[in-house]
Amino acid sequence: MISLNVNGKDYKADVQADASLLWVLRDYLKLTGTKYGCGIGECGACTVHVDGKAERSCGMTVGEVKGKKITTIEGLPEDNPVKMAWIKEQVVQCGYCQPGIIMQVAALVSQKPTPSADQVISKMDDVICRCGTYPRIKKGIKTAVQMARKEGK
Hints:
Elements: E1 2-6, E2 9-13, H1 21-28, E3 47-50, E4 53-56, H2 62-65, E5 69-71, H3 81-88, H4 98-111, H5 117-124, H6 134-151
Parallel strand pairs: 1-5
Antiparallel strand pairs: 1-2, 3-4, 3-5
């Protein structure tokens, strides 16, 4: 039995410590916003926050995150500047990769409220969008950064 803190709630899952965090989130906790993309941590669809840092959940075990705070796309507040920017700029096309991208950007904006263009590109280089909405993603990031600056988040 593993205890996890996900989105501010405590859960117990009857799994081994070496179980994949991604599959525990999806199959045991039914938090399906975190997506399976590649299974090797390359695409970014499975990105969650672990103690505020963007991490690939497919390559992490629940044993590694025991005692840490995990946030999934479901736990990111609706008034988060990144979520609001994504809606305002109509970033999503197919939407499959978007939870991972939003989590990646939200971590960046919370750690660096005024990231440079190079920092944004560096963080986004690792995230794969299969339908190629990169121009809209970049526009969404720019809007999110502007909104975060105004709100002081």
